[in-house]
Amino acid sequence: LKHEIHVWRLTAQRINPASREETAVKCLLMQKVLTLEILLRKKLKTFHRQISQEDKNWETNIQELQKKHRITDKILLIKCLTVLGFVILMFFLNSFVPGIHLDLGWIAMLGAIWLLVLADIHDFEMILNRVEWATLLFFAALFVLMEALAHLHLIDYIGEQTALLIKVVPEDQRLAVAIILVLWVSALASSLIDNIPFTATMIPVLLNLSQDPDVNLPVKPLIFSLAMGACLGGNGTLIGASANVVCAGIAEQHGYGFSFMEFFRCSNNKEEKAN
User: Fold this and answer.
1) Residue 82 neighbours by CB distance under 10 Å
2) How far apart are CA 216 and CA 124, in angstroms?
3) Which residues cross the membrane (predicted)?
4) Average pLDDT of span 112-122
5) Looking at the predicted structure, is the pLDDT value of residue 19 above 70?
6) What is the pLDDT of residue 164?
7) Which residues contact 125 (CB under 8 A, 6 or more apart)?
8) Which strand (E) or helix (H) includes residue 51?
9) What is the pLDDT at residue 130?
10) Which of 85, 225, 244, 271 could, after both became Cys, cross-link 183 (CB 3.0–4.6 A)?
11) Residue 120 and residue 123: Cα distance in Å, rounded?
């Protein structure tokens, strides 16, 4: 029902009334949207009452889902797992074998092309329609933004200020303070900008920091604290992690869209309950 409301609202918004008839059609569509929204509110009240009862029978519900949604094409599953295993193996080999002159993006693209060949899907347009083009363009723009911030030396400035704070600390406590600082600086920064480009930009900063003779710190704890902080910060906002953006795009396609502030409030409420 949410998806239907979303479709009708989009249809109404695409009509630019240039005549009396088009204005009347748009009014009818908006009236239909309002009627469906009232029906949705009524159904949600009933739904919440049913959920409280169904939560008690979760084992039965899982068994029913397993019966209804079985894997029907096992051959395609084997092909997918084969390609996925090959791509993951190439990701690992790319890090350790210098003879592989392929970027990670090219490995992923070659895996996708190989799977299309193996699957022998004739309706290629249907697959292209299912691709999250808006999400991909958003990621592209986000990486452009991160590169611009790197050229403006904002990330370097964050790293330099972190290094200055670490140098002030006595040498016997320096490693512990460095780990805590890197963890929380990366967590706060990753909640405002995507954690993948931020991590990629911060790694050279941490390497320079570890090689500084005035600091004299091992690089591994700093890298691990960066990874943990970026992962933690990715839960803070909608744009903090790539998975959040992909999930929001797919949910929007099915009529379950949520805004930046809704995600922010929900994630903060969960963290407060966990604390």
Assistant:
1) 13
2) 56
3) 76-98, 104-121, 133-155, 175-193
4) 85
5) yes
6) 80
7) none
8) helix 20-54
9) 75
10) 225
11) 9
Q: Are 226 and 186 in contact (CB under 8 A)?
A: yes
Q: CA–CA separation, 45 vs 36, rounded Å?
A: 14
Least confident of 4-8, 148-152, 263-267: 263-267
Classify 255 as helix, strand or coil: coil
Residue type present at position 273: K
Q: Report how far apart, in Å, the C-alpha atoms of 131 and of each of 73, 123, 138, 169, 243 are.
A: 21, 14, 13, 50, 15
Amino acid at 250: I
CA distance 263 to 249: 13
Residue 197: other Cβ atoms inside 10 A: 21
Rounded Cα distance between 80 and 74, Å, is 10
Vertex 53: Cα angle to 49 and 57 (nearest 5): 150
CA–CA gap between residue 21 and residue 19 (Å, rounded): 5
Place of tokens 């911030």: 149
Tell me the average pLDDT across 235-255.
Answer: 79
* Helix/strand/coil percentages in the chain, nearest 5: 80, 0, 20
Count, residues in the chain: 275
- State yes or no: pLDDT of 200 exceeds 70: yes
CA dist 42 and 37 (Å) reads 9
pLDDT of 258 strictly over 80: no
Extract the tokens encoding 89: 């193996």
User: Considering all CA atoms of the chain, what is the largest pairwise distance in Å, rounded to the nearest integer?
Assistant: 79
Distance CA(129)–CA(6), nearest Å, equals 18
Question: CA–CA separation, 9 vs 134, rounded Å?
Answer: 19
